[in-house]
Specification:
Layout: H1 2-20, E1 34-47, E2 52-64, E3 68-77, E4 82-83, E5 88-101, E6 109-124, E7 129-144, E8 149-161, H2 170-173, E9 175-187
Antiparallel strand pairs: 1-2, 1-9, 2-3, 3-5, 4-5, 5-6, 6-7, 7-8, 8-9
Length: 190
């Protein structure tokens, strides 16, 4: 009888201690949470052999745990550069997934690392448009001007995969770039 009471008491203590533990899940963790929403107007300058191209775009997305940004971005050239073996004008449009990581985003000036991946189309003057895939890694700094406005300056390289026109290669469309971003939104939490 004493052993039955002892086992019952131990079982109750074990059950109480198990129910007192908080279960950790990916989306219920206090460390991983949606902490803001941001939109950006981007001014992009791409550098080709002897020309540059001005592009403009935007992005919108959510901020997770004050340092990770996940969103949608869209960009297109506003000034068409001359490129390729026969010096034709190039027009480029693309959209897709935008990821960014900004450690210490609560500081006045902090680093920001980005990665864009998506598809679009390239049009070469006098030739039809063809689909392209774009990958854009970047790194830069961001300034918290106000609680709802940030200014970013980033540099990177735009890799464009393109092989449908015999005289042109991916290197004719790929280029280094500098991006100035005006970001509007709101973050909450610490």
């Amino acid at each position: 009888m004493k052993i039955t009471h002892l086992l019952t008491t131990l079982f109750l203590f074990a059950a109480l201690s198990l129910s007192a533990q908080k279960e950790e899940t990916l989306f219920n963790s206090s460390d991983i949470r949606i902490s803001g929403i941001w939109a950006s107007i981007d001014h992009n300058y791409s550098f080709f052999e002897e020309e540059y191209a001005y592009g403009r775009g935007f992005s919108i997305g959510i901020e997770v745990s004050r340092s990770l940004y996940i969103g949608y971005a869209r960009n297109s050239f506003r000034q068409e550069p001359v490129t390729g073996p026969d010096n034709r004008r190039l027009d480029l449009y693309y959209d897709g997934l935008q990821l960014a990581y900004a450690p210490s985003s609560t500081r006045l000036l902090h680093p920001r690392f980005g990665l864009f991946a998506g598809g679009g189309k390239a049009t070469v003057e006098g030739i039809d448009d063809d689909p392209v895939y774009v990958l854009k890694p970047s790194a830069g700094v961001e300034l918290n001007a106000t609680q709802w406005f940030r200014v970013g300056l980033e540099a990177g390289y735009r890799f464009v995969t393109y092989d449908d026109i015999p005289e042109y290669s991916s290197s004719d469309f790929s280029s280094p770039f500098v991006n100035i971003a005006l970001r509007f939104g709101l973050s909450w939490g610490n």
